[in-house]
Amino acid sequence: MSDTPIDISHDQHAVRRQKLAEMRTAGVDPFRANFATTHFSGDAIKLHVDGQDNAVTVSVAGRLVVIRDMGKSQFVKILDQQGQVQLYVKKDVVGDAAYAAFKKLDLGDILGAKGTLFKTKTGEVTVRVESFTLVSKALRPLPEKWHGLSDAEQVYRQRYLDLIVNAESRARLLMRSRVVSHIRRFLEAQSFVEVETPVLENTAGGAAARPFVTHHNALDVDFFLRIATELRLKRLLVGGFDRVFEIGRIFRNEGVSRRHNPEFTMLEVYQAYSDYRGMMTLIRDLLTSLVREVIKPADGSLKIKHAGSGQDIDFGGEWREVRYKDLIIAATGEAGWFALPKADKVAKAEALGLSIHPTWEEFEITNEIFSKKIEPTLIEPTFVTHLPKELCPLAKLNAEDPTVLDVFELTIGGMEVAPAYSEQNDPDAQRAMFEAQAGEEQQNIDQDFLLALEHGMPPAGGMGVGIDRLCILLTGAESIRDVILFPQLRPGGGAS
Fold it and tell me: What value does the mean pLDDT take over residues 405-427?
């Protein structure tokens, strides 16, 4: 007897191909152009009224995912966008020929069915099928629920299979869509206007990040895929759009990690005549409404469970506000940290277990301490305010302490979720900050943006919200890849 494992998947593929050939020979179209449905599964189930079996007729369609053969009848389940609904197919009802054809269907086939709703003895609302149609033949078998998608990369590379067999993944990614939809409705209700700005930019601006470069053949010019939407949106403030937002794709040619993907989705919002404190109110109201109306905790509270620590995050409780400098002093135990020589800062950071690059400036050393030793501990909603001026050239300096900015970073679940600023609207101050950041790379300064500022931009609060990170937080996902439908992967893989 051979110990070589049988390639069941390959055998099933051959069997299904044979069935396909037989259908075509018999004049049956196994790939229909359409099927008229009346309801999704969940909506159909809600129509049933106890004690009124067979009173409502529905047409539903979906992928065959469960088959229970009982001889002259079958209980099966199909899967659609809303979930599963059970079908009851009886030989005496559909007829001998149709029932024989139904028994030849395979798991994964997509079918439509028409019938009446009733409730089984076990209490499950079911469609008593009067007629059915095979609308698309599946030529490859579905993976086994527990073993067929054991390769983590296959989950992302063949996301369509993950969505079929993994209810948790389906729910998480559908939740992402509801989160984005709610954000739009929330902002529009407050008179914000949604806009779209270019993905291709002459100058990569609005953030400190390495861009992707592409070439425009007709113009014979290199363009950058945008690393932020900020500078375009603030031009709209100049143009008289007082409240604007964009939910757009951002591209940064940098590392990949559990919280970083080179292509991600960012909400950026700008409100004229506001400031960073106005943004505090906006983001708190937005996240509170998301938890209440979209996540809907079962206990009726505004608490969700942090996946990493198991700790409750209470969006209805007190949102802490603390200055960046105070957190650094507490973490280092050095009251005079910001006056220490660079060598002492390096020594202290290394004593905390951090690796410090010799070319780093002092503010970068300090921010490494914040990123690695402080931020991961901030589980409850925390506004970290007044960051060093070197960290953002687009915000206003604090009037009382010009070494810091009027900004905050909202940190929840140990990660930054939303940075916000009192936006710089002084064109001379903005030029000086750009030039200091650019150094010798003056060609990287967005001169057109500075020209726009010279026409006058109203004071404004601006904020960015990482949609992917927000969804990690709200759904309890382990990785950013789990909340992106098709994350970037190395080429290769796929079905055999």
Answer: 97
Q: What domain range includes position 311?
A: 164-319+380-483
Based on the domain organization, do 76 and 212 belong to the same domain?
Answer: no
199-258 residue pLDDT tens: 999 888 888 889 999 999 999 999 999 999 999 999 999 999 999 999 999 999 988 888
Domain count, the chain: 2
What is the rounded (10 degree) CA torsion for 363, 367, 369, 371? Answer: -170
- Pick from 248, 254, 256: nearest CA to 228: 248
**Pairwise CA distance, residues 208 & 392, whole Å:** 9
The residue count of the chain comes to 496
Phi, psi for 97 (deg, rounded to 5): -65, -45
* Single pTM value for the model: 0.91
In a domain, 374, yes or no: no
Buried b (16+ CB within 10 A) or exposed e, 423-452: bbbebeebbebbeeeeeeeeeebbeebeeb
From residue 457, alpha-carbon distances to 196, 218, 426, 430, 454 in Å are 20, 34, 8, 12, 8
pLDDT average, residue stretch 397-420: 96
